[in-house]
Amino acid sequence: MSHDHDHDHHHDHTRHDHVPAGASERMLRQAFVLIASFMAVEFVGGWLANSLTLLADAGHMFLDATALGLAWYAARLAQREDNNRLSYGYHRFKVLAAFVNGLTLAALVVWILIEAATRLGQPEPMAAIPTLVIAALGLAVNVAAYRLLHAGQHDMNVRAAAIHVLGDLLGSAAAIMAALIVYTTGWLYADPLLALAIALLLGRGAWRVIADSAHILLEGVPEGMNLHEIRHALLESVPGLREVHHVHAWSLTSERPLVTLHAHVETDVDVSSTTSCIKQVLLDRFGIDHSTIQVEQGPCPDR
Q: Closest Cα partner for 178 from 214, 135, 146?
C-alpha cells in the first residue's frame, strides 16, 4: 500500500484573480475615503430636511464607511503570509468581512422598511431643495466610489463593498426623485415609497452576499463545480487510475478553490507521475491549483 500525501503548497493567490490583491486594497481604501468624507454632510442634511430617503442613504453611508474600512483591513490582512496558527494565511478574513457586511446591510434594510411603513401611515413634510442638492452631490460621490470598486467584483470582499456603495447610489437617486416629486407636486408619500423600493433592492443584494459568504464559511462545494464531473474526468484522463473517492471540494475565498481526494491506482503505476497527471487535470479542466491527493495501491485505510 502506498500513501502519497501530495500537498501542493505553492500559494500563488493571483492565478485566479483578475485584479492583484494590492489593487483591490487600493480600490477599497479610495472608496472608503470618498464615502466617509461625504457621510456626515448627508446625515446633517437629511436630518435638517426631514428626508427619509436622504437619512436612509446617510445611514447606509455610515454602514458603508464601516464596511469599506473592514473590507480594506481584511484585504490588507489577506496579504500576510501563512503561519503556524493560520496555515492558509489570512485570506478567509475577506470572506468573513463580506458576511458581516451582508448582515449589516440586512439590518439597514429592516430599519428602512419599518420607518417607511411608519411614514406611509403618517406622512411628514420634507425640505425638497436641500434634499435635492445634497442627494445630487451624494450621487456623484457614490458613482465615483462604485466605479473604483467595479473592476474588482470578482473578489467577494470587494463585491460586498460594491453592493453597499450601489445601494448608496440608488439611495441618492431615490432621494433626488423624492425631492423633485415633493417640490413639484407636494406629494409626501413619494419619500417613504421610494425608500421602500430601495430597501427591497438592497435586500436582494444583501441576501446574495450573505448566502455566498456563508457557503464558503461552511466549506460548501464551489459554485459551478461538480464532484461527479471531477471523478469522471480523472478516471477518463489518468492512466492506471481505478477509483476516485473521498473527494472534498471547498473554497478558501471566492477565487481560490481547493480539493482533497483519494486515488486508487494499479500496483504497477508510477505514483509520482500519476499524482502529477491528476493535478494537471484538476488545473486544466477545473482551474484548481491547490490539491491534496492520497494515492492508494491497496484498500483505503479510512474506510
A: 135
**Grid cell at residue 148:** 473604483
Using CA atoms, how far residue 187 sits from 50, 135, 166, in Å, is: 14, 18, 27
Quote the CA–CA distance of 230 and 283 in Å, as a whole number. 11
pLDDT in tens, 173-197: 888 998 999 999 989 899 888 888 8
Q: Which burial class, exposed, middle or buried, applies to 84 when counting CB atoms under 10 A from its CB (0-12, 13-18, 19+)?
A: exposed
- Tell me how far apart the alpha carbons of residues 55 and 203 are, in angstroms, rounded to a whole number: 18
| Backbone phi, psi, residue 224, to 5° | 85, 0
pTM for this prediction: 0.71
- Asked whether the CA dihedral 247, 257, 201, 125 is positive or negative, the reply is positive
Query: Domains in the chain and their CATH numbers?
Result: 21-217 (1.20.1510.10), 222-296 (3.30.70.1350)
The residues near 275 (Cβ < 8 Å, ≥ 6 apart) are 4, 6, 263, 293, 295
Q: What does the block give as the cell for 45?
A: 442634511
By DSSP bridging, strand 291-296 and strand 256-265 are: parallel
Which residues have C-beta within 8 Å of that of residue 191, sequence separation ≥ 6?
51, 52, 53, 119, 123, 124, 126, 178, 182
The pLDDT tens digits of the residues spanning 144-178 come to 888 888 766 566 667 777 877 887 787 788 889 98
CA dist., res. 8 & res. 284, Å (int): 15
Residue at 1: amino acid letter? M
Q: What's the rounded Cα separation, in Å, for the pair 223 and 36?
A: 34
The H helix count followed by the E strand count for the chain is 8, 4
Q: Give 118-162 as a DSSP string.
A: HHHHS-----HHHHHHHHHHHHHHHHHHHHHHHTTTTSHHHHHHH
CB 138 within 8 A of CB 44: no
